[in-house]
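Progress against Task 2.4 (sequence-to-structure conversion) is shown through the following example record, which the project officer requested during the mid-term review.
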Amino acid sequence: MKPDIHPKYEEAKVVCACGESFTTRSTTKDIHADICSSCHPFFTGKQKLVDTEGRVEKFKKKYRKAREKAQTEES
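Structure tokens generated for the chain above:
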């Protein structure tokens, strides 16, 4: 490996949006995470729907229209 081309690998503090924090090693000093093992549904067992930009509502609206159209055609 060539000397002096790699970034320094130092301790870093990770802070989650839920308030949980821990230290690890990284090339950056501070890491800000949106979700961690303390608040992620897979690890906590609690189902929490993270809706980004109304995607779930958009999906439901799209298929509601298709279902209503199919019902009207049957009548």
